[in-house]
Amino acid sequence: MKHLVCHYDDLLLTQKKSVSIDRKPIVVVRSESGDVYALRDVCPHKGPCLSEGMLDKSCAGKEVGEYIFEPDKDVLRCPWHSWEFDIKTGCSLFDPDKVRVKTYEVSVEDSKVYVEV
After folding, report:
1. CB-count burial class (<10 Å; 0-12, 13-18, 19+) for 67
2. Are the C-beta atoms of residues 81 and 72 closer than 8 Å to each other?
3. Phi, psi at residue 12, to the nearest 5°?
4. Do 82 and 90 form a contact (C-beta atoms < 8 A)?
5. Percent of the chain's residues with pLDDT above 70
6. What is the reported pLDDT for 16?
7. pLDDT tens-digit profile of 73-85?
8. How far apart are CA 103 and CA 15, in angstroms?
9. Mean per-residue pLDDT for 12-33?
10. For position 65, what pLDDT does the model report?
11. DSSP assignments along 78-102, one per residue
12. What is the pLDDT of residue 61?
């Protein structure tokens, strides 16, 4: 079922909005490119709200001290321990096969943002 969460223009670029749908905590995120994503608003590590964290670009590296900027990958960083999650897939950057947060389908219709739960 689709739920209206906000108007598209009310969610600024790189902004997050915390909502509750059917008692599920969800964070809605508008990326720098303008795309909108929705994830479960709970970090699987210790449980803080991911909506309180920072939305940023990802950095990778093959060794300690090496930082490769990844401009096409937006991550939501946990406010407590900085665990990072890809906003498109919900996968963690450190162990994408085992640690992730649930994602939800988002649609924008007539300038309104809907999340399917």
Report:
1. exposed
2. no
3. -70, 165
4. no
5. 92
6. 96
7. 899 999 999 899 9
8. 17
9. 95
10. 67
11. -TTT--EEETTT-BBSS-TTT-B--
12. 63
Six token digits for residue 15: 């902004």
| Token pair in block for residue 98 | 């085992």
Token code pair at residue 40: 């479960």
**What is the C-alpha to C-alpha distance for residues 27 and 41, in angstroms, rounded to an integer?**
5
Beta bridge partners of 85: 76, 92
Whole-angstrom Cα distance, residue 114 to residue 106? 6
Residue whose token pair is 């090496």: 66
pLDDT value at 59 more than 80: no
DSSP state of 66: -
Token pair 């994602």 is found at 103
- Which residue in the block uniquely carries the two structure tokens 């940023």? 56
Q: What beta strand segments (E) does the chain contain?
A: 2-7, 16-21, 24-30, 36-40, 54-60, 68-77, 84-86, 103-109, 112-116
At residue 8, φ and ψ (nearest 5 deg) are -55, -45
